[in-house]
Amino acid sequence: MDTVSENTAQSATKKRLKVHRPRGTIVRKVIAFQELINLERDRKSERDAAKLLEIPNSTMQAWREQENARETPVELTEFFSTAAGIDFLQRNIMAVMKLMKCGPGGIRGMQEYLHNSGLDHFVASSEGVLQNFWVRCENYIIEFSKREETRLSAGMRHRKITAGLDEMFRGKRPCLVAIEVVSNYILLEKFTEDRTADTWKKELESRVNALNIKIGQVVSDLCGAIRSVTKALGAEHISELFHAQYEISKATAAPLAAQERYSKQALNEMEEKFKKASERPRRLDKKERQKQLREIEETRNTRDRLKIEFEEKAKRREEVKMAISEMGKIHHPINLKTGALQTAVGIEDRFNEQFKIIYDRAEEANLSEPSINRVEKAQKAFAAIVCYVKYFFTVYAAFVESLGLGIEQEGFFNEVIFPLSYLKMIWKRLPKRGKEENKQLLQSLEIKIRDAPWPEELKQEWMKKGREMAEIFQRSSSCVEGRNGVLSLNYHRFHRLNERTIKVFTIIHNFDVRRSDGTTAAERFFEAKHDNLFECLVANVRIPNRPKKQHHDIEKRLQGWKKRLAA
Predict the structure, then answer these.
(1) Residue 79 lies in a domain
(2) Domain that holds residue 36
(3) Which of 145, 301, 485, 552 qualifies as a FRET site for 491, CA 20 to 30 Å off?
């Protein structure tokens, strides 16, 4: 058998460590290089100039190419190619990083940034000036939203939407939040005196009438006011999956985990007792020896019994946990294992199987009556989910019929187009393990649509229709829950928010926050481009002027007093 030489590593070339130079050093070296090769007398070649500056010529050329490749205004490029420009950039970036990671928010944060960056020499940074500047920004943002909403709503197509509704409480006042779940466009975000169905209806109707839409579905928890306003709007209510699962978790997770924990503790104590009994010195007296053996045997039997009890309790808790998780996998219009369309009856039967497991384990664990009541409450929520699934498949059947497909095409739409459209829609939301489990199904569906005999244009049109149908099926109001969290954080950050500022935060979310594909919520909702909010702010809102010299400056007063004393 050939052996590997021990001297192999000796002939290997040692990797040179990369040299990281500060940007200020790079700029100064480039400036000196330009001066050396442009001298009238004793002009240096590029190679000699680089050697004189102790920089490899290839590195210097790469620096120069990088400077020339930037698509920025010439004046700005020239400024940041100077020593003063790079020092300003270094200070500015450091001030931003410090503010974002460690600094305060609001006006104080702005003042700190201007001071650290050195911009307070060019921009007035007093509290009053910056407050007035923010008011100008707020007023323009609100005007921008009114203008763009009016323009975009005039050209948008009329359609039914699915809205997520929820409330966020601050003190005694509720904030009503309504979001279009597909585009994540905030329709309503407003503090009101109460959260009754009449208040919800009044606020929602004023927004819906201003836009070319109708609320067809509402997804939320089982709040009575929201269900009532859903009925008043003529929409279909969707019971939210998370709250239904959470009710079961609250009913079972803590007591089952406590039983498992106490059983584990008792087992550990008995393990220790058995270990000590086994390690005792052997007694010479026959009677004492028999007594010692009986004690060891009893301890072993008790330990084995406790071990079995612990394993049963651990298995019981895991089975309930898996049943709750399985309900989330069941609640889809397609079977995620096979890709086939489900039925409302099939989904209901699968839900009931999981509830049987939960009830059986709860009975074995002898859970309290309040815990059982919570499970029953969750079962009502899942019954509401089944009712919505029946409604969805009725809408689905009417939708497919309206496409006017042949028998073979309709079968292809049901077996390939819609499952693939739905799977692609939820793909990003799936956990890593879920993606691994469903990867094979996704690939098989993609192969089927690729090998289908119909033209590509027709298949693309069907995929568009399949996506439209997939977006109708909703099971979560997580967008509203997340927005409530953002509002709560803003309150903690700024201590208070007036009506105008909340409106501005809503507009920023709709018109300025972008997803990874570069689109804003407004672009997805109106299906059209809008003006860039930040660029409009830069072009239309006046920033504070230079700071003026203050006549009440303390140093000036001291100098004046010294002159008077000297006179």
Answers:
(1) yes
(2) 23-84
(3) 145
